[in-house]
Amino acid sequence: MPEIGAFTAWFADLARGDVARVGGKNASLGEMVRSLGAAGVKVPDGFATTADAYWAFVEANGLMHIIRDCLAARQASQVSLTEIGATIRQAFLRAQWPDDLGKAICAGYRELCRRSGQNDLDVAVRSSATAEDLPDASFAGQQETFLNIRGEAALLDACRRCYASLFTDRAISYREAKGFDHLKVALSIGVQRMVHADRGGAGVMFSIDTETGFDKVVLINAAWGLGENVVQGAVDPDEYEVYKPLLANAALTPIVEKKLGGKAQKMIYGSGGDDRPTRNVPTSKAERARFVLEDADILQLARWACAIENHYGRPMDMEWAKDGDTGELFIVQARPETVQSRRDVTALRSYTIKRKGRRLVSGLSVGDAAVTGRVCLIEDPRDIRRFVDGSILVARATDPDWVPIMKRAVAIVTDHGGRTSHAAIVSRELGLSAVVGTGNATEILHDGQDITVSCAEGDEGFVYEGTAEIESTELDISALPETRTKVMLNMANPAAAFRWWRLPADGVGLVEPDTSAGVDA
Fold first, then answer.
1. What is the mean pLDDT of the segment spanning 208-235?
2. How far does CA 155 lie from the centroid of its chain?
3. Of 423, 499, 508, whose CA–CA distance to 456 is shortest?
């Protein structure tokens, strides 16, 4: 049995090479604490349990034979994924903490309280699998996170639930799809001081345009309260885009675009004790009408995104939070971006939609394709078993429990969510077209309806009535010859400048009614 010192590690003592020890998420937090503090990047203090701690918990409670037996039964098609997942999770939830492991976690929590100058400090308890947040496998949302956890008993319970979440249906199916061995993946737990974003705001940030891969912008989504609503797509967030090459000039404000989101609700601390540590409440009219971030905050986050990207040497996907009491900004997670950074940059495919029907709904486009299909409307997650393979999934929003049917869809349409919501991220990873944040798709569309989903017309996506005729053309950019004459483009749609940035043009300009101005892209 490992000694207590092998069970926990402070973020400041970790680095990105420690994935096998503390998982991708916690290794990345440690890397930022150690290496990016000098660049001003702030990360809340905390510690991680190690892979050794997980294996000690499994061994002390005899869980390995339960896991093996259940997985063998699934492989033999004797029981369903749902049944084996539930059996394994219940075994974890009934398990007891080995004395030395429980003491190590509580000792870490007490030290974190001491450092923060608070008794029963409120912490975030996050899962970090050893096969997670990798350059080719994000595992986004596959395991659980618990917010506003206070006290040693509540912390140990949340940690136990994190361990159990390694065997949610979605986590099991994702590992199988990626070829990871269930018996070799361990779970680390991050225990991190909470940022009081319940009285401020939070969101997600990418150091690359999520739809086109344009690498000269930072995309930021923001909503009031804790950040889970943005990640889950439960709200329509604000969206900000910042032009990276001009960030070094402090005299400039290179915010390309600001879009006000609906932000109909916010997640705050609950008042019902440990059984309800967080809850959603409606936002006020003033909050819905106001941007979450001031320009100075937007630029600060964008500069941090550039610093993090430069340090890791690749595009990054980050979560941030703003403390409503102090006004401080923090980065609470950072992981590699796993879609655009792996895309084939030598081929451009364009889509033309002919004989399209009446426009039914619109929202944010995810992807750049167009597809036709039949609606399968599911409003309640309990009804996902009735999804018809090859249909277009229409839902209010999605979370990781929806992934098994998202894989069987040809496109996705949601009422809520932004470009960094769960529905958007998973759609990109699966190569699906999606229109998110429509506001009313579940009210307008109906089961069995033939529709066309178009993400080929810029940053706004459309759903058309009926089955349109779709033509696609692929261009091999690598085969285009260089010309002595500088060739530039003029476009009427600003969003198209991002979509066609990979063309070997010498500049992209915007055509306006009376004037035209060119800006190098």
1. 93
2. 24
3. 499
Angstrom CA distances, 116 to 38, 45, 110, 333, stand at 21, 9, 10, 20
Express each pLDDT in 109-146 by its tens digit. Answer: 999 999 999 999 999 999 998 865 445 444 455 688 99
For 156-203, give the secondary structure using H, E and C: HHHHHHHHHHHHCHHHHHHHHHHCCCHHHCCEEEEEEECCCHHHCEEE
H/E element, 369: none
Residue 493: other Cβ atoms inside 10 A: 13
Measured distance CA(146)–CA(383) in Å, rounded:
26
Q: Which residue has the tokens 């476009």?
A: 491
CA 493 – CA 370 distance, rounded (Å) = 18
The helix or strand, by DSSP H or E, that contains position 245, with its residue range, turns out to be none
User: pLDDT for 160-190, tens place per residue?
Assistant: 999 999 998 878 877 887 788 888 899 999 9
Cα separation, 100 vs 84, whole angstroms: 30
Sign of CA dihedral 180, 186, 189, 190: negative
Once rounded to an integer, what is the mean pLDDT over residues 30-39? 94
The CA distance from 144 to 162, in Å, is 6
- 411 three-state secondary structure: strand
* CB 400, CB 473: distance < 8 Å: no
Beta strands in 355-456 (DSSP E): 359-366, 370-377, 392-395, 411-414, 433-436, 450-454
Instruction: State which amino acid sits at residue 154.
Output: A
| DSSP string computed for 13-62 | G--GGGHHHHHHHHHHHHHHHHHSGGGT-----EEEE-HHHHHHHHHHTT
Q: Given pLDDT bands bounded at 50, 70 and 90, which one contains residue 462? A: very high
Q: Going by DSSP bridges, is the β-strand pair 516-519/433-436 parallel, antiparallel, or unpaired? A: unpaired
Nearest-angstrom CA–CA distance, 292 and 211: 23
d(CA 288, CA 340): 31
Specify the length of the chain in residues.
521
Pairing of strands 123-129, 145-149: antiparallel
Q: Give the CB-side neighbour count of residue 503, counting CA atoms within 13 A.
A: 21
